[in-house]
Amino acid sequence: MKVKFFTTGGTIDKLYFDAKSQYEVGPPQVDDILKEARVTLEFAVEALLFKDSLDMTDGDRLLIRRRIEADPCPRIVVTHGTDTMVNTALALRGIPGKTIVLTGSMTPARFKMTDAVFNIGTALGAVQGLPAGVYLAMNGRIFDPARTRKNAAGDSFEEV
């Protein structure tokens, strides 16, 4: 079994620059997370974008969709910023024969206390067991993007 990861940026890949007192999207962290977790299944990582999800456009979502459609792997995980993850998930619906799970984090993966590792693990397990379709993996849960929203005040996702 092989899983393909597409990275798009977001908080999960953010780096903090003390001199600038700001965060910027850095290189994808998923490869390091999977290696540190000693994941033994075959996986590949492709960086598509390096954006905060608030800066994503419909054109970016189309690029993500086209790359997923063109890739032969039937199991896809997309790392994504949490603010517009639902929008991108909805834009990916209808791709036949693929199980697509989007995940991200509320804090950067490089932080000691982060939800990134847990969310990636949840997404990896989900993509191996779910039927074809598009899902979100956040907060230890699997969500249908058509019935989900981000609760910014609660730093979590919830069904609506």
Rg calculated over all Cα atoms: 14 Å
* SSE order, one letter for each helix or strand: EEEHEHEHEHEEEE
Shape: globular
Task: Supply the number of helical segments.
Answer: 4
For the residues shown, what is the average pLDDT?
A: 89
Under CATH at level 1, the class stands as Alpha Beta
Assembly of the depicted chains: single chain
Could you name the CATH homologous superfamily? L-asparaginase, N-terminal domain
Provide an overview of this structure.
The chain has about 160 residues and is α/β, with parallel strands linked by helices. The chain contains 4 helices and 10 strands, in the order βββαβαβαβαββββ. Strands 4-1-5-6-7-8 form a 6-stranded mixed sheet, sandwiched between helices. The chain has a two-stranded antiparallel sheet with strand order 2-3. A two-stranded antiparallel sheet has the order 9-10. It is globular, with a radius of gyration of 14 Å.
Task: Give the helix/strand layout.
Elements: E1 2-9, E2 14-17, E3 22-25, H1 30-36, E4 42-51, H2 58-70, E5 75-79, H3 85-92, E6 99-103, H4 116-129, E7 133-138, E8 141-143, E9 148-151, E10 156-159
Parallel strand pairs: 1-4, 1-5, 5-6, 6-7
Antiparallel strand pairs: 2-3, 7-8, 9-10
Keywords:
Rossmann fold; alpha/beta; globular; 10 strands; 160 residues; single chain
Can you summarize this structure?
The chain is 26% helix and 33% strand. It is of the alpha/beta class and 160 residues long.
